[in-house]
Amino acid sequence: MRKPGEAGLAFGPAIATLPPCYGANGGVMGQGGWISGAVAALIMAASPAARAQDAETATIRTLPPDDGHRLYVTDFTQDHLVDSRATVVDGKTLRYLGNLPMGNFGSMNLSRDRARIFIATTYYDRGSRGHRADIVEEYAATTLGFTREVVLPSKRALAASYTEYLQPSAHDRFLLVQNATPASSVTIVDEASFKVLSELPTAGCFGLYPDPSDDARFSTLCGDGGIVTITLDAAGHETARAHIGKLFDPVADPVFITGGIWGGKLVLVSFQGVVHVIDLAGGTPRQTAVWSLIQSPAAQAWRPGGYQLFSVHAASGQLFIGMHPHGFDGSHKAPSAEIWQADLASRKVTHRFALHGALAVTVSQDATPTLYTITYDGLLQAWGLGDKLAPKGKMRQAAEMPNALVLR
User: Do residues 380 and 394 lie in contact, with contact meaning Cβ atoms separated by under 8 Å?
Assistant: First the structure.
């Protein structure tokens, strides 16, 4: 069990002094080549460092507050799933800041004020077997240090790291955790006390979408093509539930789990590129717009694809989405060949940018937004927006198997 104050890795400037490299014959590799063992012994014995080496001290660097450009790159680590992680990156400089452990199939998200990091994860006491413990851990965003945890019912969904599986409510009153046993349910955690309040069954429904206007309400997508909206009381118990069916066709054209927010409404995209805008306010969801990104004969074979495949700049109503040609049933995880920009108000695709290989896309929410993309091989890139994408920086090997770019 972690103790408060334990940190993820946060690095400041440091100089590492490497030990000498010893050869098979007992020699030491010096700057000019191999030195005999006897000569090396005399040199090392005569050096002040050999006689009295200064003690090293370790410190934890305090990071500046998250200004809306800090990225958390979730890494699925498919070859060693018990060790998923999040790489923390300064989005303005694409400088590495540290990383956070995410355990087995970990999911992460941020508090609304960006001051706290939540990680929902699972641990087995024998690594890949044994007693199972499902936990939500909280970390401080300034130190990446562990602060507290809450033990959950052992039902958490062990799945890819989508933010839609771990969500704070609109004003950080509740934390919502997606469960699957495979029966689906939602665990409600009180953010202030960090205690489990309730578990709500959500049979046939999956994904968590808080109502941006109400701290006590969230919605979840259902296998019948509909959506359920649940209202909570102050104790985190259900007081009302509304189900609206057939907003999309779950067989002919299902929607991706990724969601965006624009004008207080939920934005979803289907496998065939249909945009659905759903008003979650008032406790009864209603669909307010349905339109297609495929707007010309030349675009007919193009399809959306990726993991976190689109992002919405809420203030301007601009949607950025990874698209690939020659789409087919089953290509919905294919990386991008282009990034398309669409205006949600006019329902028009306004720009198509060539960008190969993006699996996850996100955009900062400031007045002059930056687009961030990451490819299947971990290449993280920042782009200025305009008539063309303007490269602002890149970072290689940001993740082994990237899944999402978490930014608020």
Answer: yes
CATH no., domain 293-408: 2.130.10.10
CB contact set of 13 (below 8 Å; sequence gap of 6+): none
Tokens of 62: 């305090």
What value does the mean pLDDT take over residues 369-376?
97
Concatenated DSSP letters of 115-163: SEEEEEEEEETTBSSSSEEEEEEEEETTT-BEEEEEEEPTTB------G
Nearest Cα to Cα of residue 180 among 235, 134, 123, 248: 134
Asked whether the beta carbons of 256 and 332 are under 8 A apart, the reply is yes
The string over 299-327, giving b where at least 16 C-beta atoms fall within 10 Å of a residue's C-beta and e elsewhere, is beebbbbbbbbbbbbbebebbbbbbbeeb
Locate the DSSP E strands across 263-347: 265-269, 274-279, 286-292, 303-304, 310-313, 318-324, 338-343
| Pairing verdict, β 390-395 and 380-384 | antiparallel
Dihedral of alpha carbons 350, 356, 358, 364, sign: negative
Q: For Cα atoms 155, 160, 161, give the angle at the middle one, nearest 5 degrees.
A: 90
Cα–Cα distance between 255 and 269 in angstroms, integer?
Answer: 6
**d(C-alpha 351, C-alpha 301), whole Å:** 17
Q: How far is CA 221 from CA 80, 184, 229, 259, 328, in A?
A: 30, 11, 9, 11, 23
Residue 78, classed as helix, strand or coil, is helix
Q: pLDDT tens across 237-263, in order?
A: 999 999 998 899 999 999 999 999 999
Half-sphere exposure in the Cβ direction for 169 (13 Å, CA)? 25
Q: What is the mean pLDDT of residues 330-352?
A: 98
How far CA 91 is from CA of 2, 43, 394, in Å, comes to 28, 46, 10
Alpha-carbon distances of 407 from 6, 103, 110, 132, rounded to whole Å? 23, 20, 8, 30
Q: Sketch the domain layout of the chain as residue ranges.
A: 293-408
Cα separation, 309 vs 361, whole angstroms = 6
pLDDT value, residue 55 = 77
Q: Which residues contact 176 (CB under 8 A, 6 or more apart)?
A: 166, 167, 168, 169, 186, 187, 188, 189, 208, 210, 218
Q: Report the relative pairing of strands 274-279 and 265-269 from DSSP bridges.
A: antiparallel
